[in-house]
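queue> pop job 88
queue> type: inverse folding (structure -> sequence)
queue> payload:
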């Protein structure tokens, strides 16, 4: 199927209005439904799932420290839109097929409101998972100003629920950030990058079987999903008309498996101002930005001297990353900017020289070091799957940090893929990466480094909640468990991995 590129305008999700807002708190209700939406003008309308009848869902905008309550409501049909594999954890036939639970990715939040994968619920909360505590979640929004996002997190079907459309943005703002005079309002635009494949009738395609099918099964999970088209905010290859001035773009990779290496064909620098966890110490000018699933980067694009030009945002990352297929004439294209709108007023926004302090966590302050492997496994059907620390989801909890303590985690990647590792609840800092001898580790369980210490990439020098653990490397992260106690998770954000055992519970204890 050949869809024309840059045929449709980029949609910008609406800002969600609260049902109630007073001095003490703000209250929202968000309903999940199935509906039809146009994802490209040459395609029939596609049946998708979304929040408040939108895919992506409406953007939730809050002030730092604002107390927010959200009632998440499942109003979906009871048959899934996409093929369910009943053999993966949490998705066996003893549970209803359509289950949902919402996680605000990056939020520092009490565990009962974090969207634990087994806190799922069905329509009308008629059936709930064993960790379901309440329908109305509470967010204290203590995070720094940042681009968070909300998405489904149901055990065993997250990949399907997000692919169906259950994802949206969640911004935290504050006054200090406003005083920086960054491009704002209609010049502050979120871009949710995803990939999808369509059936000829316009419906969403998601594989029923891996390339090497499992004959015993009607439906089997696939080791990765790589789509044929690229969507931004739910449109395939859109364009955006812009003024010749500065814009702030909030880039999010919300794909199942695909990494994006983002460049502009104008060769202009991208001024990155924020990582997953908010503003960096100062902007950095880069030629490209690599985003693994769930990672965010905020950038200022300056179109000031480009009136009349069309600029294409491109992707160069092989899929799966890093050893997979190179991009082709379709997957190398993300979207287009048309610098054709007249300047409505003088652009007084700035790219500040300094953004906010970035205090580095000190290695000496860590009271606990954990060595955690990323493992390649084979199941009884001959399918490859991945584990964290050699343990499945149901094994007893092994990561039990103490409230107030600082820890360093060594992510020892024994596999051939990059895995975007995400921790709920806290932001961490990337210390470094280093090559090591995988053979020797497998035999003797010791880390024998074979390369020099690699500092974080420029674009990673800030607060992170998701980091690429690259193949045959030890990736070290440091974090302080400063806020809440309770039950959370850490996992690979490749959704096909997360849904099949590459996720572990962890608990912050007092
Ligand atoms: Cu983006 Cu555990 O999630
Ligand atoms: Cu993974």
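queue> result:
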């Amino acid at each position: 199927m050949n869809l024309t590129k840059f045929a449709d305008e980029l949609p910008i999700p609406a800002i969600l209005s609260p049902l109630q807002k007073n001095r003490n708190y703000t209250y929202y209700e968000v309903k999940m439904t199935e509906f039809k939406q146009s994802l490209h003008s040459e395609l029939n309308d596609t049946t998708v799932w979304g929040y408040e009848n939108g895919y992506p869902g409406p953007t939730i905008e809050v002030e730092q420290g604002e107390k927010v309550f959200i009632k998440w409501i499942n109003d979906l049909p009871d048959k899934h839109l996409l093929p369910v594999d009943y053999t993966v954890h949490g998705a066996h036939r003893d549970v209803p097929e359509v289950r949902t639970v919402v996680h605000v990715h990056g939020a520092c939040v009490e565990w009962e409101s974090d969207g634990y994968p087994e806190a799922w619920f069905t329509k009308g909360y008629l059936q709930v998972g064993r960790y379901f505590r309440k329908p109305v979640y509470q967010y204290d929004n203590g995070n720094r100003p940042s681009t968070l996002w909300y998405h489904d997190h149901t055990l065993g079907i997250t990949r399907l629920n997000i692919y169906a459309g259950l994802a949206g943005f969640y911004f935290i703002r504050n006054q200090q950030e406003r005083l920086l005079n960054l491009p704002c309002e209609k010049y502050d635009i979120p871009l949710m990058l995803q990939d999808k494949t369509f059936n000829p009738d316009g419906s969403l395609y998601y594989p029923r079987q891996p390339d090497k099918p499992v004959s015993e099964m009607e439906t089997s999970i696939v080791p990765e999903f790589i789509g044929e088209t690229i969507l931004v905010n739910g449109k395939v290859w859109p364009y955006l008309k812009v003024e010749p001035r500065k814009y702030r773009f909030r880039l999010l990779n919300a794909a199942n498996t695909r990494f994006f290496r983002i460049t502009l064909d104008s060769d202009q620098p991208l001024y990155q101002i924020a990582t997953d966890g908010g503003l960096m110490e100062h902007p950095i000018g880069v030629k490209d930005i690599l985003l693994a699933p769930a990672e965010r980067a905020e950038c200022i694009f300056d179109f000031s001297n480009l009136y009349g030009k069309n600029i294409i945002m491109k992707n160069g990352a092989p899929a799966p990353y890093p050893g997979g297929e190179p991009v082709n004439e379709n997957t190398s294209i993300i979207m287009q900017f048309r610098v054709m709108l007249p300047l409505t007023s003088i652009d007084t926004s700035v790219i500040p020289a300094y953004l906010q302090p970035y205090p580095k966590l000190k290695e000496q302050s860590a009271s606990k070091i954990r060595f955690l492997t990323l493992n390649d496994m084979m199941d009884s059907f001959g399918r490859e799957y991945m584990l964290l620390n050699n343990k499945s989801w149901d094994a007893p909890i092994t990561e039990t940090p103490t409230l107030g303590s600082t820890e360093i985690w060594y992510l020892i990647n024994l596999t051939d893929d990059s895995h975007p590792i995400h921790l709920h609840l806290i932001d961490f800092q990337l210390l470094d990466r280093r090559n090591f001898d995988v053979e020797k580790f497998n035999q003797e369980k010791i880390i024998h480094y074979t390369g020099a210490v690699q500092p974080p990439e420029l674009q990673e020098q800030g607060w992170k909640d998701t980091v690429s653990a690259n193949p045959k490397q030890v990736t070290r992260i440091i974090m302080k468990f400063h806020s809440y106690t309770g039950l959370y998770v850490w996992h690979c954000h490749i959704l096909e991995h997360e849904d099949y055992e590459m996720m572990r519970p962890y608990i912050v204890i007092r």
